[in-house]
Amino acid sequence: MRVVVLGAAAGGGFPQWNSHAPACRRARRGDRAARPATQASLAVSLDGEAWVLLNASPDLRQQIEATPQLQPREGLRSSPIAAVALTGGDVDAIAGLLTLRERHPFTIYATRRIHAVLDVNPIFEVLARDLVVRRPIALGEAVTVAEAADGRRLAIEFFAVPGKVPLYLERPGEPPPIIEGEETIGIAVGDGQRRLCFVPGCAAMTEALARRLTGADAVFFDGTLWTDDEMIRAGLGTKTGGRMGHMSVDGPAGTLAAFSALDIGRKILIHINNSNPVLLSDSPERAIVEAAGWDVAHDGMEVTL
Ligand code: MLT
Ligand code: MN
């Protein structure tokens, strides 16, 4: 299985368009330790022919132009992108669907709940329904999304993770509850031999999630924030990570602690907010995550499983 990280950053990207915070200023100045990153997405393929995108970020057009594997190879109009699977309905997961208009046939895999969000928003009708199939998947249902010439199959399965409704569906004035259902999911991708899990947003580790991740050859996991209150302390916002549906990397209930006893091949942080110092390759926090056996995803990173 081949994996390309199309984008490593959380919603907003790095640098974020309206951020003048120190890290974003470093990224804009071309500081080599503050490498820019687009919004989180993976491309996965069995054989390098057909590719399945895990989330379609607002930066998808730029990501395709930066990724030769995803560019047209034949005819006058074509694309190796065969499908998009969605982990939720947030802008950073779905806005790139609009980039995929222009009458290219592909399949959108999402939970019924997230399809309902797309269905009620007429802007997504730019994806002509005679060409773009909207396929609902139930939690735990394995679906073949690609087949290689030699008969090998790439299958995906959705699993619930603790999360919340998309930001734009929150009710004003009340913090959204953390729920485990069809709003925020993780995606397991398997080729019969290897298994990858993609969980760009997760509010907490649960026993069921720990069981699901155990034994995976690679897990790309929510690296949004280093500490729960980092955006407040940096003067960048008023929300904690918990309020945004993201567990932190550090701390007793954080990602490093939650994964320390899990048997997983490669552990890779993704969906990293521009306030998280792990984005800076010269930060003490980057050294801590690497010492704990983690990699930090970067745009263009390739992983072969
Ligand atoms: C998140 O992951 O918390 C969301 O992407 C926030 C957003 O939509 O900006
Ligand atoms: Mn996000």
From TrEMBL:
Single Gene Ontology BP annotation: pyrroloquinoline quinone biosynthetic process
Which InterPro entries would you find in this protein's record?
Metallo-B-lactamas, PQQ_synth_PqqB, RibonucZ/Hydroxyglut_hydro
Q: Where is the Metallo-beta-lactamase domain?
A: 51-272
Q: Which domain of life is it from?
A: Bacteria
Has keyword Transport?
yes
Tell me the function of this protein: May be involved in the transport of PQQ or its precursor to the periplasm.
Q: What is the designated name of this protein?
A: Coenzyme PQQ synthesis protein B
